[in-house]
Amino acid sequence: MKSNVKNTTRRVVGLSVATAVLALVLAAWALGALLNRTGDASATLSQAVTPALIQRGAYLARAGDCVACHTAHGGPAFAGGLGIQSPIGTIYSTNITPDTATGIGTWTYGAFERAVRRGVGHDGSALYPAMPFPSYAKVSTADTEALYAYFMNGVAPVHQANRANGIAWPLSIRWPLAYWRSLFAPTPAPGDGLASAASDARIARGAYLVQGLGHCGSCHTPRALTMQEKGLDDATPTYLSGTELNGWAVPALRGGKHWSQDDLVDYLAGGRNSTASVAGEMKDVVANSTSHLSVEDLHAIAAYLQLLPAQTEPRDRPQPERSAATTRQLTAATDLSLGQRVYLDNCGACHFVTGQGAPRVFPRLDGASIVNAQNPAALIQVILAGAQTPSTAQSPSVLPMPSFAARINDGDLAALTTFLRSGWSNSAPAVSADQVRAVREQLGAARRP
Ligand code: HEC
Ligand code: HEC
Ligand code: HEC
Q1: How many C-beta neighbours within 10 Å does residue 406 have?
Q2: Which of 187, 230, 326, 354 registers the highest number of CB atoms within 10 A of its CB?
Q3: In terms of CATH, what superfamily is 320-447?
Q4: Can you tell me the distance from the alpha carbon of 187 to that of 143, in angstroms, rounded to the nearest whole number?
Q5: 338 lines ligand 3 (CB under 6 A)
Q6: How confident is the model at residue 28, as a pLDDT?
Q7: 318 DSSP assignment
Q8: What are the tens digits of pLDDT across the range 384-414?
Q9: CA of 379, nearest ligand number
Q10: How many CA atoms lie within 13 A of 79 on its CB side?
Q11: Is any ligand 3 atom within 6 A of the Cβ of residue 347?
């Protein structure tokens, strides 16, 4: 009898808790759905589609690097299907060709605009921020219209069904993303995006491209635990202050005084300049996006970046005395450390005893971001796997850095990188053989089919 009462009480309490939870979930879902009601899905273009508009859209699609994510490796352009790793699983990009069955062929301008600038998909559900809509919110209405005109009229339709995301339930539920978005992504201002306040037209253009379509911050700005970028514009000193991407050091773009404006432009246009060559994921950014931009736009980007003050004291102030000391020691070739010997045997022929390389051919190692990064993984990876500059209109020839995986063992490579990171004017922590082994294993795993 007693236990019966207890059971009933337990059941009633259990039921009311379940009801309360259900009510909360429903309310949260409803609010999520409400948050997705932004923009106007029925909106149409405010201008006629002309060849000039389509051409401008094609240029803007380059500036936004849409092809990078919306094209599977070896697949047709813009047909989607590229898997993007996220902490909760793989998110597949979608088909944005104008195919009417599997692409965006039947979409209104409004549906396109909501996806690009507001992170709301064509079915009204919230998108994952793997699509960089927090940056694209800054794109002007005129430019969003040109993009739509291009994707509907300038891109070949490809019949390719979208792949389901590899995210397990309940993490695959989308409505919580609406909360994320309303907390962390800006909403486009009515009319014309979120234009920069800079009074100088060139700086404003640079800010617009960097913060908006260029979405440079999605790789160059550190992220918080909740995955939003710590700053979407220069109002925050952490904006573009450098971070890591899959273990690869992404340098700060602030305090860019160590590169001249011409060097920045050369790097973005051709993947190399008087001191550096591009590697890692930036290589694709250059090949697919920045190398297609006009010289005026690249100068605007460079001028804007150069205005951003360094977040910390620049580490790579030239130190001619220290650099000269290392060069003298390598030249004399006596009393060399193991790392210095490995350097002379394998690297000196191209990067020279000065560590200066040769302008536009061999990048400089003295003062290079990749050498001085806190995490040496990218440096180790370049030496193990080698690298190649991209072929661009400005610099069509491909310059290879050979792979040393088969020639230098873990201990010698640790000694070599430790020397690189303390030689000349460089200053970064020593590297252990374990760190080299970890990168070697990762590369091996990546190569396995
Ligand atoms: C960094 C990667 C990345 C870039 C760059 C990118 N996208 Fe996306 N995009 C995605 C992913 C991933 C999705 C799917 C998101 C999801 O499923 O929630 C997506 C979704 C979309 C959708 C919505 C599809 C739908 O079914 O509702 C459109 C439209 C779109 N992108 C257009 C563009 C355009 C236009 C550009 C260039 C201006 C662009 N994207 C650049 C990754 C990217
Ligand atoms: C997909 C990620 C990604 C995006 C998007 C991206 N970058 Fe990068 N960027 C990198 C990585 C990684 C490096 C390091 C390259 C290396 O180690 O050689 C880099 C390096 C650079 C460098 C060289 C800096 C130095 O000190 O060596 C510049 C300049 C640069 N990026 C500018 C830009 C600009 C401008 C944009 C936006 C138009 C941009 N990046 C967008 C990943 C990215
Ligand atoms: C045959 C000439 C050659 C040799 C030998 C060579 N390199 Fe390179 N190295 C290059 C070229 C060319 C690049 C530019 C490739 C790129 O960035 O895609 C490069 C790039 C690099 C980079 C990346 C620089 C950056 O800013 O991203 C590092 C680091 C580097 N080399 C270190 C070394 C070390 C250490 C050795 C010896 C173990 C070595 N290299 C041997 C030609 C060479």
Answers
A1: 7
A2: 326
A3: Cytochrome c-like domain (1.10.760.10)
A4: 16
A5: no
A6: 82
A7: -
A8: 999 999 999 988 999 999 999 999 999 999 9
A9: 3
A10: 14
A11: yes
Closest to 194 in 3D by CA, of 204, 182, 180: 204
| Token pair recorded at residue 71 | 């094209």
Q: In the structure encoding, which two tokens stand for residue 426, read together?
A: 């460089």
Pairing of strands 89-92, 248-250: unpaired
Tokens 């374990």 appear where?
434
Ligand 2 centre to CA of 136 (Å) is: 18
- Mark out the alpha helices in 119-169 (DSSP H runs): 133-136, 141-153
Hey, what are 365's tokens? Answer: 């190692």
Q: How far apart are CA 275 and CA 319, in angstroms?
A: 16
DSSP for 360-387 reads TTB---TT-HHHH-SSTHHHHHHHHH-E
Please name the residue whose Cα sits nearest to atom 37 of ligand 2: 216
pLDDT at 392: 92
Contact 127, 175 (CB under 8 A): no
Residue 147 Cα to ligand 2 middle (Å): 24
Q: Ligand 3 in contact with 402 (CB < 6 A)? A: yes
Q: What is the pTM of this model?
A: 0.89
Distances (CA, A) of 424 to 76, 316, 328, 352: 46, 11, 10, 12
186-240 pLDDT per residue, tens: 988 766 655 566 789 999 999 999 999 999 999 999 999 889 999 999 999 999 9
Question: Tokens for 357?
Answer: 């390389």
In order of 234, 284, 287, the CA distances from 290 in angstroms are 21, 9, 7
The DSSP line for 76-98 is PTT-B--EEEETTEEEE----S-
**One-letter identity of residue 149:** A
Q: How far is the CA of 341 from the centre of ligand 3 (A)?
A: 17
Characterize 145-163 residue by residue with b for buried, 16 or more Cβ atoms within 10 angstroms of its Cβ, and e for exposed.
bbbbbbbbebbebbebeeb
The rounded radius of gyration (Å) of the Cα atoms in the chain is 26
| Ligand 2 pocket mutation pick from 273, 282, 380 by most atoms within 8 angstroms of CB | 282
Cis status, amide bond into 170, omega within 30 of 0? yes
Residue whose CA lies nearest to ligand 2 atom number 10: 282
Query: Which amino acid makes up residue 49?
Result: V
With tokens 């201990």, the residue in question is 411
Phi/psi for 244 (5° steps) reads -130, 145
Q: Enumerate residues 6+ apart whose C-beta is below 8 A from 210.
A: 216, 217, 240, 301, 304, 305
Rounded to the nearest 10°, the torsion over CA 382, 384, 390, 396 is: 120
Report the pLDDT averaged over residues 270-298. 96
Cα 336 to Cα 5: distance, rounded to the nearest angstrom: 85
